[in-house]
Design goal:
Elements: H1 2-12, H2 16-26, H3 32-70, E1 77-85, E2 90-98, E3 109-115, H4 131-145, E4 155-160, H5 162-170, H6 172-187, E5 192-198, H7 201-215, H8 218-224, E6 239-244, E7 248-253, E8 267-271, E9 274-284, H9 288-302, E10 307-310, E11 318-322, H10 323-327, E12 343-348, H11 352-360, E13 386-391, H12 392-399, H13 410-421, H14 425-431, H15 437-456, E14 466-468, E15 471-472, E16 476-477, H16 480-488, H17 504-536
Parallel strand pairs: 1-4, 4-5, 6-13, 10-12, 13-14
Antiparallel strand pairs: 1-2, 2-3, 6-7, 7-9, 8-9, 11-12, 15-16
Bound molecules: guanosine-5'-triphosphate (GTP) and calcium ion.
């Protein structure tokens, strides 16, 4: 009997309070053996209930803590602003990404592309005072779109490209004044203004290459694939980048043979634990606007007459050009001459083959001191891998309906261009009444220019490897700005981030399981401890 009672009291005596109750009952005059066994029975029954209750409560608490800790808390977003101050116009891009996933790839997306109304910033050389008005609308948009409490930590960059490179060559002081005015204006905002500068052609090419490969997930794919040391050919996976601006054009890719002797230093990148050897070259004056001026200047010199019959414009199209505008330019000034007219009348004839012949004259290819060249004696390894072609490559080919993957050969493009250029201007103008006249009138020229440039790069039998692209995966536009920001905010680590040993669900399950084991061990331990002390009594 004593044994039974004592075994009951062992459970309840796990609680210190049980002993106090026991003592107070004993003082009410009951026979002590009787009292003891009743109290032990009471505690035996209720102690178990209390124990179970506490156990369930602890379990609930544990689960609640775990779930609260791991529930989808609102993500902490970061923002970045980059101005692309191009030769033809300026665009402000706002990027947004999750602060927690900063080292992952493919997670930054563009929330705004604000086109600044007006020309490129190089046009403000003689009226820098107008720059604040020029940029203020897009900055106002940035203030609206980015939450106020994030303003001070949002970096702002402005990168100027070929238009400002040309201005700097012409008049360095003017270029400096423009950048100083931009700097002081952007500094007046509550954002974290970092820099306004002219980026080099190589940077422009390289950041464009980083942007498209980041957005296409080419850098990320490697992250999940084999071990870096086992990889043979990185160029199989990355895309080359073709950017056609208004004043310059860039070609960037990983060549098949990176060991060939090159007069141009290949660029070396280490991204997510992989090394890349990248060829990049920027051709100043070969953006499509400058190329048109170059062509017109050459044509004017070769057949000096006030009227130019131009095969690169539709039949029936006419345009007047000031001779001073044509030759007061770094790209065309070598052709400058005295002409007995100060205006040039352009009359379109719409002949693709003749247009192409004239455009080929802009690309001297006979002279080359290296193993392989593009034009103007510039070294370039043979093109290799897939290519993403964006900016004016895309605008032009999109309009001409030539961006589809079904367009697999250059011949298909030639056929289309022959037919398109020959269409009378009147008909084209009425068919596409909603298209800006500057763009519409030049699609025959720009389509022929794109084709000629790609032929000069040697894409003739390689056409199906060119992919015309604009916004990639709905995330962001192809262009140099995203790559520039990723680099300046250190968002692409050189090394692969160390993977976590457990996935989140495994981690939570393990934590719960171990907590339970601990709780059980603790309870059992307490019971055993109190049982032995009870026996000692
Ligand atoms: N058809 C068409 N052309 C465009 C459009 N936007 C820009 N362009 C023209 O395409 C060419 C290239 O434009 P961008 O890539 O913006 O050139 P940019 O950045 O100003 O010039 P760079 O400083 O040389 O890079 C220019 O001649 C523009 O006038 C568009 O939406 N449609
Ligand atoms: Ca550009």
């Amino acid at each position: 009997m004593k044994r039974d009672c004592s075994s009951g009291s062992q459970k309840r005596s796990a609680f210190g309070a049980g002993r106090i109750v026991l003592a107070s009952l004993a003082s009410h005059g009951f026979p002590s053996g009787y009292q003891d066994s009743r109290v032990k029975r009471f505690l035996s029954k209720n102690g178990l209930v209390i124990l179970g209750f506490t156990f369930i409560l602890s379990l609930i608490a544990l689960l609640a803590v775990g779930l609260t800790q791991n529930k989808n808390t609102p993500e902490n977003f970061k923002f970045g602003i980059v101005f692309d101050a191009g030769s033809s116009h300026t665009t402000m891009y706002i990027y947004k990404w999750s602060a927690e996933k900063v080292n992952d790839t493919g997670l930054v997306y563009e929330i705004e592309a604000c086109k600044v109304k007006g020309p490129g910033i190089s046009a403000f050389a003689s009226n820098v005072q107008d720059i604040p008005v020029y940029l203020s609308k897009c900055m106002g948009r940035a203030k609206e779109l980015i939450p106020k409490y994030k303003h001070h930590q949002t970096p702002v960059y402005l990168g100027a490209t070929a238009g400002m490179r040309l201005l700097r060559m012409e008049n360095e002081q003017s270029a400096k004044r423009i950048l100083a005015s931009v700097t002081s204006f952007l500094n007046s905002y509550p954002f974290n203004f970092r820099d306004a500068r002219i980026i080099s052609g190589s940077e422009e090419g390289a950041y464009g290459w980083i942007t498209i490969n980041y957005l296409l997930g080419k850098l990320q794919k490697k992250q999940n694939s084999e071990d870096p040391s086992s990889r043979k050919n990185e160029s199989q996976e990355t895309y080359g980048a073709l950017d056609l601006g208004g004043a310059s054009t860039q070609i960037t890719f990983v060549p098949k043979d990176t060991n060939i002797s090159s007069p141009i230093k290949f660029m070396q990148f280490r991204l997510y634990g992989w090394n890349y050897t990248v060829y990049t070259y920027s051709f100043l004056c070969y953006g499509q606007d400058q190329a048109l001026l170059l062509k017109l200047a050459k044509d004017t010199v070769e057949t000096p007459s006030g009227t130019l019959l131009d095969p690169c414009f539709h039949p029936g199209y006419e345009r007047m050009v000031d001779i001073s505008d044509l030759f007061n330019n770094v790209c065309t000034r070598e052709y400058k001459d005295l002409f007995p007219f100060d205006k040039l009348r352009i009359q379109g004839t719409g002949d693709f083959l003749q247009c192409q012949e004239r455009l080929h004259n802009l690309f001297p290819t006979t002279y080359c001191r290296y193993t392989s060249c593009t034009f103007n004696g510039v070294f370039m390894p043979p093109v290799h891998g897939e290519f993403g072609a964006f900016s004016a490559y895309y605008y032009t080919m999109k309009f001409l309906n030539l961006t589809s993957d079904k367009v697999t050969s250059e011949d298909m493009v030639i056929e289309k261009m022959k037919q398109y250029c020959s269409r009378p201007w009147k008909e084209v103008n009425t068919t596409y009444a909603d298209v800006k006249e500057k763009y519409l009138s030049e699609y025959c020229f720009s389509g022929t220019y794109v084709l000629t440039l790609l032929q000069v790069y040697n894409f003739t039998d390689y056409w199906k490897h060119i992919h015309f692209m604009h916004k990639i995966n709905d995330n962001a536009e192809a262009g140099w700005t995203l790559g520039y920001m990723l680099n300046l905010t250190n968002m692409i680590p050189a090394e692969l981030p160390q993977p976590k040993p457990f996935s989140r669900p495994t981690y939570i399950s393990l934590m719960v399981a171990f907590s339970l084991v601990l709780a059980i061990v603790f309870i059992l331990g307490s019971i055993i401890f109190h049982k032995s002390s009870y026996f000692q009594k």
